[in-house]
Amino acid sequence: MTTLVTGATGNTGRHVVAELVRRGERVRALTRNPAAAAAGLPAGVELAAGTHTAPEIMAEALDGITRLHITVTAGLAEVGPELVRRAVDAGVRRITIVWGGGVGPVEQAVADSGVEWTRLEPQEFMSNTLTWTDSIRAEGVVREPYDHPSAVVHEADIGAVAAVALVEDGHAGRAYRLTGPQPLTLHERLAILSDAVGRDIAFDRITHAQAVERLMATGVSRADADYVIGWYAAPPAESAIVDDTVPRVLGRPAKTFAEWAAEHADRFRSPAPAGNAH
Q: Which residues pair with residue 203 across a beta bridge?
């Protein structure tokens, strides 16, 4: 059986691919640019050109596929139900889906698809920390409006749970809430990241409006920016509550933020001046 992973080079999709390959499974990776994606994916992965936001051109990518992984991203709400319909018509019999923060049209279409499905409900990704890369590298500072505890989850754990649900029985019809092993405030995460990077990282509080404007400057719509920053202003209580799903499904502890920080520390370090290169 072959699994199609959409968003195969994204924060979670690449981990789904890697875990399936580690398990010896056949994987087809859907990506907008197969040539560029090849270098970052494991050997043996079949590459298919396309995007899940254009299901009308996915017939070739879906040919021979029995399992499908979907990550809900911007633009999928409108066409996601069609993607699910085409996938089921093409012979897909098991679907995992990383939700977009709630049960919207795509998540509901998967639940109503008539095939086995598992919905993954991660709270806050550890990889969101990467939005601080530029300011830490340049100034050693993080600017955010709020500091609240969050049981951030490692994206590799999300990928690993998806892989288990795709290849093993017993996960159909389940909605899995995924968290890391401990709730951490922004200050606590910065302290851990500072240790990993080897420099002090300061916290500079900005206003809610400044955070919204900053996000909009990256091309995000005002509605989406208001939603994202609004989540941080009043996060759901469950975002700080540790869930045991990751260790229960994987049979090992959930990865810590300290592990994530060690893995990505180089991305936060300032490059050495050209004259000091060795």
A: 142
